[in-house]
Amino acid sequence: MEGAVVWLTLLRAPGVGRTRLAKLMDAYKNPAEVWNLSARQFAEVEGWTRKAAAAAVEVLRDERAIQDAHAELDRARLAGLRLITQLDEEYPHRLKQLPDRPPFFYQAGPWRSDDRPTIAVVGTRRPTAYGVSVAERFGRRLAELGAVVVSGMARGIDCAAHRGCLAAGGTTVAVLGGGADVCYPPEASGIYRRIRQTGAVISEQPPGSEPRSEFFPERNRIISGLADGILVVEAGKRSGTLITVEAAMEHGRDVFAVPGPITSPMSVGPHALIRDGAYLVTSAEEILETLGCAVGAPKTVQPEGLTPEEQQILAWVGEEPRWAGDLAEGCGLPAGTVQGILTLLEVKGLIRQVPGGQYIRIG
Question: What is the pTM for the complete model shown?
Fold first, then answer.
């Protein structure tokens, strides 16, 4: 019987939960041995109660629970996911340091944890144009400097950071609040597919799980745990982003914040963090230098396969929003031609249209 089936079956026992399961994995490295434990042996594991021990013994004799565990693994395989437990070599070494680490998670994508600096970029789901531009810029620059970017693929700042990293050909990891095979939000399907191809989409939740509000605080601790430091771009006074920050501080991670306009409600969160001791940063280099990472010449990725006209227009699109008419005037090309090329550049993930119809370059 597959070792993973034992862990998935145990998680179906009332009162076991992920924390107790992680403690059990610390005590017993061989799943086959766990299969035959008595209630007394379960109860001797740190953090286990007699009630949880009795439930564990009972569920391991429940054929329906075992079948359900097998079915979950089958769904994962069909969805292109693999189960990674804390006993596996590819389990991220940063997560192993956490007292509240996930005993296992599902992953899609080729990424494996390594010694590259890993930065979490988080923020509001309702960013300003400034916040989106900054998140994309940091995501891209961190990738150019050789860092891995972690975020939650939520609307707003999260997706902007992923986009920037992908635009630079970097590695980015998305931690979801639903199953790793469920793209959420739906409009991020392009980002989701690209991350699965080059980085990783991971989740504690079973395959097919729809996102639920109670899952997001749990996934936030994984975002923090995977990273060496966490960057907050924009967040309101009561933003859920601050849950990730709290987890980062509990995990001993450095917290960085980008200042914003004092008139913006989305600047309240970062400014409060800076007052409380977070590092004020204006560049990716500052983050890596603070973490003690060597910062060499950035690795830049030039877009390939562009026509001369596409290259010309892309060169005119910068970090400040530009109207299509202004770009046509600057490039000396017909407005209709410019609009068509802008659409193609947007499809290729090189530029983005902001509210109001203007365009900015991603990253």
Answer: 0.82
